[in-house]
Protein backbone atom coordinates (compact mmCIF):
# COMPACT_ATOMS: atom_id res chain seq x y z
CA UNK A 1 0.00 0.00 0.00
CA UNK A 2 1.36 3.39 -1.02
CA UNK A 3 1.44 6.18 1.55
CA UNK A 4 0.66 9.63 0.17
CA UNK A 5 0.81 12.99 1.91
CA UNK A 6 -1.25 15.77 0.31
CA UNK A 7 -0.81 19.39 1.36
CA UNK A 8 -3.72 21.66 0.53
CA UNK A 9 -5.93 18.58 0.80
CA UNK A 10 -9.04 20.50 1.84
CA UNK A 11 -9.19 22.43 -1.45
CA UNK A 12 -11.08 21.24 -4.50
CA UNK A 13 -8.00 19.80 -6.23
CA UNK A 14 -6.54 18.27 -3.08
CA UNK A 15 -9.82 16.72 -1.96
CA UNK A 16 -10.41 15.25 -5.43
CA UNK A 17 -6.92 13.74 -5.37
CA UNK A 18 -7.65 12.34 -1.89
CA UNK A 19 -10.81 10.64 -3.18
CA UNK A 20 -8.99 9.02 -6.09
CA UNK A 21 -6.01 7.91 -3.96
CA UNK A 22 -8.38 6.28 -1.46
CA UNK A 23 -10.15 4.49 -4.31
CA UNK A 24 -6.76 3.07 -5.34
CA UNK A 25 -6.34 1.64 -1.85
CA UNK A 26 -3.59 4.05 -0.81
CA UNK A 27 -3.12 5.35 2.71
CA UNK A 28 -3.99 9.05 2.51
CA UNK A 29 -2.70 11.67 4.94
CA UNK A 30 -4.19 15.13 4.52
CA UNK A 31 -2.02 18.04 5.63
CA UNK A 32 -4.36 20.68 7.04
CA UNK A 33 -4.43 23.88 9.07
CA UNK A 34 -6.50 24.39 12.23
CA UNK A 35 -8.96 26.52 10.24
CA UNK A 36 -9.26 24.14 7.28
CA UNK A 37 -12.76 23.25 6.10
CA UNK A 38 -12.96 19.45 6.17
CA UNK A 39 -16.30 19.18 4.36
CA UNK A 40 -14.73 17.14 1.53
CA UNK A 41 -12.44 15.06 3.75
CA UNK A 42 -15.07 13.02 5.59
CA UNK A 43 -13.82 9.54 4.69
CA UNK A 44 -12.87 7.80 7.93
CA UNK A 45 -9.77 6.30 6.32
CA UNK A 46 -8.13 9.71 5.91
CA UNK A 47 -5.39 10.55 8.38
CA UNK A 48 -4.71 14.16 9.28
CA UNK A 49 -1.49 16.02 9.91
CA UNK A 50 -1.11 19.65 10.95
CA UNK A 51 1.88 21.16 9.17
CA UNK A 52 2.88 24.56 10.63
CA UNK A 53 4.84 25.90 7.65
CA UNK A 54 5.56 29.14 9.48
CA UNK A 55 7.55 27.28 12.20
CA UNK A 56 10.46 25.26 10.79
CA UNK A 57 11.21 23.33 14.00
CA UNK A 58 7.57 22.40 14.55
CA UNK A 59 7.23 21.46 10.87
CA UNK A 60 10.23 19.16 11.10
CA UNK A 61 8.88 17.57 14.25
CA UNK A 62 5.51 16.82 12.60
CA UNK A 63 7.03 15.40 9.43
CA UNK A 64 9.58 13.22 11.20
CA UNK A 65 6.89 11.99 13.56
CA UNK A 66 4.67 10.94 10.65
CA UNK A 67 7.36 8.75 9.11
CA UNK A 68 8.24 8.25 5.46
CA UNK A 69 5.68 8.73 2.70
CA UNK A 70 6.04 7.13 -0.72
CA UNK A 71 4.58 10.21 -2.36
CA UNK A 72 4.30 13.83 -1.23
CA UNK A 73 2.06 16.10 -3.29
CA UNK A 74 2.44 19.79 -2.46
CA UNK A 75 -0.67 21.70 -3.49
CA UNK A 76 -0.92 24.18 -0.61
CA UNK A 77 -0.31 27.78 -1.60
CA UNK A 78 -2.06 31.05 -2.26
CA UNK A 79 -3.52 32.44 -5.48
CA UNK A 80 -4.59 35.78 -3.96
CA UNK A 81 -2.51 37.97 -1.66
CA UNK A 82 -2.42 41.65 -0.80
CA UNK A 83 1.35 41.96 -1.05
CA UNK A 84 4.04 40.51 -3.32
CA UNK A 85 5.99 39.20 -0.33
CA UNK A 86 2.93 37.24 0.80
CA UNK A 87 2.95 35.26 -2.46
CA UNK A 88 6.66 34.48 -2.10
CA UNK A 89 6.42 33.51 1.55
CA UNK A 90 3.57 31.05 0.99
CA UNK A 91 4.36 29.70 -2.47
CA UNK A 92 8.16 29.76 -2.51
CA UNK A 93 9.56 29.95 1.03
CA UNK A 94 7.19 27.37 2.50
CA UNK A 95 7.88 25.00 -0.40
CA UNK A 96 11.61 25.37 0.18
CA UNK A 97 11.17 24.72 3.90
CA UNK A 98 9.09 21.59 3.28
CA UNK A 99 11.54 20.16 0.75
CA UNK A 100 14.59 20.88 2.92
CA UNK A 101 13.09 18.70 5.63
CA UNK A 102 11.97 15.98 3.21
CA UNK A 103 15.54 15.65 1.94
CA UNK A 104 16.39 13.94 5.22
CA UNK A 105 17.23 10.31 4.38
CA UNK A 106 14.77 8.82 6.88
CA UNK A 107 11.72 10.59 5.39
CA UNK A 108 12.82 11.19 1.81
CA UNK A 109 9.85 10.29 -0.47
CA UNK A 110 9.97 8.19 -3.59
CA UNK A 111 8.47 11.17 -5.46
CA UNK A 112 7.76 14.81 -4.57
CA UNK A 113 5.15 16.40 -6.82
CA UNK A 114 4.86 20.18 -6.82
CA UNK A 115 1.66 21.66 -8.23
CA UNK A 116 2.83 24.89 -9.84
CA UNK A 117 0.96 26.92 -12.44
CA UNK A 118 1.06 27.94 -16.08
CA UNK A 119 1.45 31.45 -14.63
CA UNK A 120 5.05 30.49 -13.77
CA UNK A 121 5.79 30.25 -17.50
CA UNK A 122 3.86 33.35 -18.41
CA UNK A 123 2.04 33.95 -21.70
CA UNK A 124 3.24 32.99 -25.13
CA UNK A 125 3.12 34.96 -28.36
CA UNK A 126 1.06 34.42 -31.49
CA UNK A 127 3.73 32.09 -32.87
CA UNK A 128 5.00 30.64 -29.59
CA UNK A 129 3.03 27.92 -27.83
CA UNK A 130 3.91 27.39 -24.20
CA UNK A 131 6.09 24.38 -23.42
CA UNK A 132 8.15 23.47 -20.34
CA UNK A 133 11.52 24.22 -21.96
CA UNK A 134 10.59 27.78 -22.91
CA UNK A 135 12.23 30.57 -20.92
CA UNK A 136 9.71 31.61 -18.25
CA UNK A 137 8.26 35.12 -18.36
CA UNK A 138 5.67 35.42 -15.58
CA UNK A 139 3.57 38.59 -15.59
CA UNK A 140 2.23 38.37 -12.02
CA UNK A 141 3.70 38.11 -8.54
CA UNK A 142 1.79 34.85 -8.17
CA UNK A 143 3.48 33.39 -11.24
CA UNK A 144 6.88 34.69 -10.15
CA UNK A 145 6.48 33.07 -6.72
CA UNK A 146 5.61 29.72 -8.27
CA UNK A 147 8.61 30.07 -10.58
CA UNK A 148 10.85 30.76 -7.57
CA UNK A 149 9.74 27.45 -6.05
CA UNK A 150 10.40 25.64 -9.32
CA UNK A 151 13.88 27.15 -9.60
CA UNK A 152 14.71 26.00 -6.09
CA UNK A 153 13.73 22.43 -7.03
CA UNK A 154 15.82 22.66 -10.20
CA UNK A 155 18.84 23.24 -7.98
CA UNK A 156 18.34 19.85 -6.29
CA UNK A 157 19.45 17.17 -8.77
CA UNK A 158 19.58 14.56 -5.98
CA UNK A 159 15.92 15.07 -4.94
CA UNK A 160 13.09 13.18 -6.73
CA UNK A 161 10.94 16.14 -7.76
CA UNK A 162 8.43 16.55 -10.56
CA UNK A 163 6.43 19.68 -11.39
CA UNK A 164 2.95 19.99 -12.88
CA UNK A 165 2.03 23.36 -14.44
CA UNK A 166 -1.76 23.41 -14.84
CA UNK A 167 -3.72 25.93 -16.81
CA UNK A 168 -7.12 27.10 -15.46
CA UNK A 169 -8.59 24.20 -13.48
CA UNK A 170 -12.33 23.82 -13.02
CA UNK A 171 -14.77 21.25 -11.71
CA UNK A 172 -17.01 20.33 -8.77
CA UNK A 173 -16.13 22.11 -5.51
CA UNK A 174 -14.36 24.93 -7.38
CA UNK A 175 -15.40 28.41 -6.28
CA UNK A 176 -13.25 30.45 -8.69
CA UNK A 177 -15.34 29.74 -11.79
CA UNK A 178 -18.57 29.70 -9.79
CA UNK A 179 -19.17 33.45 -10.07
CA UNK A 180 -18.99 33.26 -13.87
CA UNK A 181 -21.42 30.35 -13.89
CA UNK A 182 -23.80 32.24 -11.60
CA UNK A 183 -23.67 35.27 -13.88
CA UNK A 184 -24.47 33.16 -16.94
CA UNK A 185 -27.34 31.55 -15.04
CA UNK A 186 -28.77 35.08 -14.68
CA UNK A 187 -28.46 35.70 -18.43
CA UNK A 188 -25.18 37.60 -18.69
CA UNK A 189 -21.63 36.94 -19.89
CA UNK A 190 -18.96 39.40 -18.84
CA UNK A 191 -15.60 39.58 -20.62
CA UNK A 192 -12.67 41.94 -20.21
CA UNK A 193 -10.98 43.36 -23.30
CA UNK A 194 -12.16 43.51 -26.90
CA UNK A 195 -9.89 40.78 -28.28
CA UNK A 196 -10.77 37.22 -27.18
CA UNK A 197 -7.91 35.49 -25.37
CA UNK A 198 -6.41 32.23 -26.62
CA UNK A 199 -6.89 30.10 -23.51
CA UNK A 200 -6.74 26.54 -22.24
CA UNK A 201 -8.52 24.60 -19.50
CA UNK A 202 -8.33 21.30 -17.66
CA UNK A 203 -11.09 19.52 -15.79
CA UNK A 204 -10.12 18.59 -12.24
CA UNK A 205 -10.57 14.83 -12.77
CA UNK A 206 -8.13 14.92 -15.69
CA UNK A 207 -5.65 16.97 -13.68
CA UNK A 208 -5.75 14.44 -10.85
CA UNK A 209 -5.26 11.59 -13.33
CA UNK A 210 -2.23 13.39 -14.74
CA UNK A 211 -0.84 13.96 -11.25
CA UNK A 212 -1.12 10.24 -10.48
CA UNK A 213 0.61 9.43 -13.76
CA UNK A 214 3.41 11.85 -12.87
CA UNK A 215 3.82 10.18 -9.47
CA UNK A 216 4.01 6.69 -10.90
CA UNK A 217 5.65 7.10 -14.32
CA UNK A 218 6.87 10.70 -14.55
CA UNK A 219 10.56 11.48 -14.80
CA UNK A 220 12.49 13.08 -11.98
CA UNK A 221 13.45 16.66 -12.73
CA UNK A 222 10.70 17.14 -15.31
CA UNK A 223 8.02 19.79 -15.69
CA UNK A 224 4.72 18.88 -17.31
CA UNK A 225 2.13 21.33 -18.61
CA UNK A 226 -1.45 20.32 -17.80
CA UNK A 227 -4.27 21.21 -20.20
CA UNK A 228 -6.93 19.16 -21.98
CA UNK A 229 -4.87 19.54 -25.16
CA UNK A 230 -7.43 21.71 -26.94
CA UNK A 231 -7.27 25.33 -28.09
CA UNK A 232 -10.06 27.67 -27.00
CA UNK A 233 -10.83 31.35 -26.98
CA UNK A 234 -12.30 32.79 -23.80
CA UNK A 235 -15.71 32.97 -25.53
CA UNK A 236 -15.79 29.16 -25.47
CA UNK A 237 -16.10 29.32 -21.67
CA UNK A 238 -19.36 31.20 -22.08
CA UNK A 239 -20.56 28.83 -24.78
CA UNK A 240 -19.83 25.76 -22.63
CA UNK A 241 -21.56 27.32 -19.63
CA UNK A 242 -24.60 28.44 -21.65
CA UNK A 243 -24.91 24.96 -23.10
CA UNK A 244 -24.71 23.28 -19.70
CA UNK A 245 -27.22 25.70 -18.19
CA UNK A 246 -29.42 25.85 -21.31
CA UNK A 247 -29.42 29.62 -21.10
CA UNK A 248 -29.40 32.50 -23.54
CA UNK A 249 -27.25 35.43 -22.49
CA UNK A 250 -26.34 39.01 -23.15
CA UNK A 251 -22.59 39.30 -23.74
CA UNK A 252 -20.84 42.35 -22.30
CA UNK A 253 -17.23 43.32 -23.00
CA UNK A 254 -15.54 45.73 -20.60
CA UNK A 255 -12.67 47.77 -22.13
CA UNK A 256 -9.32 47.00 -20.54
CA UNK A 257 -8.77 50.61 -19.48
CA UNK A 258 -12.06 50.67 -17.57
CA UNK A 259 -11.29 47.25 -16.07
CA UNK A 260 -8.01 48.58 -14.64
CA UNK A 261 -9.84 51.48 -13.01
CA UNK A 262 -12.39 49.09 -11.49
CA UNK A 263 -9.63 46.71 -10.38
CA UNK A 264 -7.73 49.51 -8.66
CA UNK A 265 -10.86 50.55 -6.80
CA UNK A 266 -11.63 46.92 -5.95
CA UNK A 267 -8.11 46.42 -4.56
CA UNK A 268 -8.39 49.54 -2.39
CA UNK A 269 -11.59 48.22 -0.85
CA UNK A 270 -9.97 44.79 -0.51
CA UNK A 271 -7.05 46.21 1.47
CA UNK A 272 -9.47 47.85 3.89
CA UNK A 273 -11.13 44.47 4.34
CA UNK A 274 -7.85 42.57 4.49
CA UNK A 275 -8.63 40.33 1.50
CA UNK A 276 -7.63 40.46 -2.16
CA UNK A 277 -10.78 40.64 -4.36
CA UNK A 278 -11.24 38.43 -7.45
CA UNK A 279 -10.95 41.48 -9.72
CA UNK A 280 -7.44 42.83 -9.22
CA UNK A 281 -4.57 44.20 -11.29
CA UNK A 282 -2.60 40.96 -10.93
CA UNK A 283 -5.40 39.07 -12.68
CA UNK A 284 -5.72 41.74 -15.35
CA UNK A 285 -2.01 41.37 -16.17
CA UNK A 286 -2.79 37.80 -17.28
CA UNK A 287 -6.06 38.69 -19.01
CA UNK A 288 -4.29 41.41 -21.01
CA UNK A 289 -1.96 38.80 -22.53
CA UNK A 290 -3.69 37.11 -25.44
CA UNK A 291 -1.81 33.85 -26.03
CA UNK A 292 -2.04 30.98 -23.51
CA UNK A 293 -2.16 28.02 -25.91
CA UNK A 294 0.13 25.13 -24.98
CA UNK A 295 2.26 22.37 -26.47
CA UNK A 296 1.27 19.14 -24.70
CA UNK A 297 3.50 16.72 -26.64
CA UNK A 298 5.92 16.03 -23.78
CA UNK A 299 3.11 15.50 -21.28
CA UNK A 300 1.26 13.07 -23.53
CA UNK A 301 4.35 11.13 -24.58
CA UNK A 302 6.12 10.74 -21.24
CA UNK A 303 3.08 10.32 -18.99
CA UNK A 304 1.05 8.39 -21.56
CA UNK A 305 -1.80 10.62 -20.52
CA UNK A 306 -4.93 11.28 -22.56
CA UNK A 307 -7.56 13.67 -21.13
CA UNK A 308 -11.06 12.24 -20.89
CA UNK A 309 -12.87 15.60 -20.75
CA UNK A 310 -12.95 18.80 -22.75
CA UNK A 311 -14.33 22.16 -21.60
CA UNK A 312 -17.87 21.27 -22.65
CA UNK A 313 -18.17 17.81 -21.07
CA UNK A 314 -16.39 19.00 -17.93
CA UNK A 315 -18.73 21.96 -17.62
CA UNK A 316 -21.75 19.66 -17.88
CA UNK A 317 -20.56 17.74 -14.81
CA UNK A 318 -19.57 20.91 -12.98
CA UNK A 319 -22.94 22.60 -13.48
CA UNK A 320 -24.75 19.41 -12.47
CA UNK A 321 -22.73 19.34 -9.23
CA UNK A 322 -23.38 23.03 -8.55
CA UNK A 323 -27.10 22.42 -8.96
CA UNK A 324 -27.14 19.28 -6.85
CA UNK A 325 -25.36 21.14 -4.05
CA UNK A 326 -27.49 24.29 -4.48
CA UNK A 327 -24.57 26.53 -5.39
CA UNK A 328 -26.63 27.85 -8.30
Description:
There is one protein chain. With 328 residues, the protein is α/β, with parallel strands linked by helices. The chain has helices spanning 12-23, 56-66, 84-102, 141-154, 178-185, 204-217, 235-245, 256-273, 281-287, 297-303, 311-324, and strands at residues 3-7, 27-32, 47-50, 71-74, 111-115, 161-166, 168-170, 188-192, 198-199, 201-203, 222-226, 232-233, 250-254. It contains 11 helices and 13 strands. The model has no long low-confidence stretch (mean pLDDT 92). The strands form 4 sheets. Strands 3-2-1-4-5-6-11 form a 7-stranded parallel sheet, with helices on both faces. The protein has a two-stranded parallel sheet with strand order 7-10. Helices cover 41% and strands 17% of the residues. The protein has a domain at 3-172 and 200-228 and 292-311: Rossmann fold, CATH 3.40.50.720. α2 (56-66) crosses α3 and α5 (178-185) crosses α7. β5 (111-115), α4 and β6 form a beta-alpha-beta unit.
Provide a compact summary of the structure.
The protein has 328 residues and is an alpha/beta fold.
CATH topology of the domain at 3-172 and 200-228 and 292-311: Rossmann fold
Q: Quick check: average pLDDT?
A: 92
CATH class of the domain at 3-172 and 200-228 and 292-311: Alpha Beta
Overall spatial form: globular
Percent range for β-strand residues? 15-25%
Which radius of gyration do the C-alpha atoms yield?
A: 20 Å
What topology, given as strand order, has the largest sheet? 3-2-1-4-5-6-11
Number of helices, where a helix is a run of at least 4 consecutive DSSP H or I residues: 11
Low-pLDDT parts are none
Based on secondary structure, the structural category is alpha/beta
Write the CATH architecture name of the domain at 3-172 and 200-228 and 292-311.
3-Layer(aba) Sandwich
Order of helices and strands: EHEEHEHEHEEHEEEHEEHEHHHH
The beta-strand count equals: 13
The biggest beta sheet is recorded as: 7 strands, parallel
In CATH, the homologous superfamily of the domain at 3-172 and 200-228 and 292-311 goes by the name NAD(P)-binding Rossmann-like Domain
Percentage of residues assigned to helices: 40-55%
Distance between the termini: 39 Å
Amino acid sequence: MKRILITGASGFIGSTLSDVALAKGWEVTAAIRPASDLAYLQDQRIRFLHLPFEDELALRRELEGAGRFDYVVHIAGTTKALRREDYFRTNADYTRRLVDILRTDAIRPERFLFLSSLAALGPGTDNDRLHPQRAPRPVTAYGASKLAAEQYLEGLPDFPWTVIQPTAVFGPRDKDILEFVRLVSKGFELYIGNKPQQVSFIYVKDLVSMMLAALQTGQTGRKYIATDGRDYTIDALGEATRTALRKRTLRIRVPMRLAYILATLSETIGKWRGKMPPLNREKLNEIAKVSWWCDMEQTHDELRFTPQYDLFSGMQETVAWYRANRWI
